[in-house]
Amino acid sequence: MFNHLLSLLIWLPVVGAIPVLMAGSGRPNTARWLALAVAVLTFVLSLFLLTQYNPVDPAKQLTESYLWISSLGVHYGLAVDGISVALILLTTFVGILVIVGAWEVIQDKPHQYMAAMLVLEGLMIGVFCATDALLFYVFFEAMLIPMFILIGMWGGPRRVYATLKFFIYTFFGSIFMLVGLIYLYLKAGSFDLNTLAALPLTLQEQTWLFFAFLIAFAVKVPMVPVHTWLPDAHVEAPTGGSVVLAAVMLKIGGYGFLRFSLPIVPDASEAYAWLVIGLSLVAVVYIGYVALVQEDMKKLVAYSSVAHMGFVTLGIFIAFMLVRDANNADAAKLGMQGAMVQMISHGFVSGAMFSCIGVLYDRLHSRQIKDYGGVINVMPWFGFFYVLFAMANSGLPGTSGFVGEFFVILASFSANPWIALFAAFTLIIGAAYTLWMVKRVLWGDITNPHVAEMKDINGREWFVLGAFAAAVLILGVWPQPLIHLMDSSVTQLVQQLGNHKI
């Protein structure tokens, strides 16, 4: 079984979606339980990655390779390193929580909703396993379909507008990546990522390819200025869609930079690292101010995601400056580690924040901050979780939100104190917009009679929020297991940054 563990992780949820669909609308509980069983089994299988993967060995492991398209030499190639393992575990963990979270909420065609979630989970795992560029592209694009369906069928009043904007933005970016991959294939005769990483390229070739990859992955992260699709998608998406989008799908942009931009076009990545660092700082500071004035809770957290993902791209590209300009590999490794921890942490924190907003919306059917106030008086346990996740979103020490940002700020200081100053400024802005929202929603007197009638969280919501809370606290207090899991992979990435192709 372990020889095909990665294929099992990809295709179990995809194939498992078939009996869920066959349950039909006439047996909604059967569909729910089947979906939960598939999600739990996928998570259990993903835990075997921890026993089968050797974190000391930086090489890709659990390799699978089968000829897929013989005329083009395309392989169905899978393998994982420590970064991939961490992101797969995040995906399967969140997969269970979105199924449970939607248990009673989705009443219209729950079998189709659950099936779409399972298919999306399998395709996201495929992205993190693919070692063939064309296979990566197929998974990368195929993810759009179930997410398009989730927003389009179970979204809010402006769901058609949001789905079209989401699809057009992400598909537009992907076209540039496809053109770049075709060019590389014509040069190398292969789509294998290791072959492409070893391919000699001139600086001009690297520059064109760098911007092709930048557009594709910047949209997915999303980075400023191609971030405007995200708030609309989040506002209109059902709660589960928002959780998966924020917790996992955004990470695929950062993951793409690691697999394509850094190893394939290292010299162009160094030459234009200043551009990515600048855009990351704009996201960290400016988007934080944009979040500060939002009146819709989902839109506020969506802009918060853009700001926090700015730390990921900052940590990745600050490493170039540290390795090649400052010759400081240790600081570069710290920045890269911070970016990776931030990806996992943001998955937990953003997923938890959107889950909390979903709890409120299920009771009052409003996401407007002004419609609430005094919620803590009638929902004390919810208030506990909401404050905890708000603290994590603000980067409070002891929560996962602090670890990655702290590492990136330390690394940035070694490169340029001014960059560190701007990066650290987000801790103040993040605390401002997050705590301002919490103050208006939770505290004070109850002014809306409908708020007075709200009930505290039930057992299902307890499970979802409790699981997110445990992840946020464990990673915040004890990040070492995650750092150890990714350490050799991060070290190898930093060593690759020093390689030149020209």
From TrEMBL:
InterPro entries for the chain: NADH_Q_OxRdtase_chainM/4, NADH_UbQ_OxRdtase, ND/Mrp_TM
Family (UniProt): Belongs to the complex I subunit 4 family.
GO cellular component terms given for this protein: endomembrane system; membrane
GO biological process: one example: electron transport coupled proton transport
Upper lineage: Bacteria, Pseudomonadati, Pseudomonadota, Gammaproteobacteria, Lysobacterales
Residues covered by the NADH:quinone oxidoreductase/Mrp antiporter transmembrane domain: 130-427
Localization (cell): Endomembrane system; Membrane
Classification via NCBIfam families: NDH_I_M, PRK05846.1-3, PRK05846.1-5
Pfam families xrefs: Proton_antipo_M (PF00361)
GO MF entries: NADH dehydrogenase (ubiquinone) activity; NADH dehydrogenase activity; ubiquinone binding
Keywords: Membrane, Oxidoreductase, Transmembrane, Transmembrane helix
Membrane spanning residue stretches: 33-50, 85-106, 134-154, 166-186, 206-230, 271-293, 300-323, 343-361, 373-392, 418-438, 459-478
Name the UniProt record assigns to this protein: NADH-quinone oxidoreductase subunit M
Protein topology in the membrane: Multi-pass membrane protein
Signal peptide stretch: none
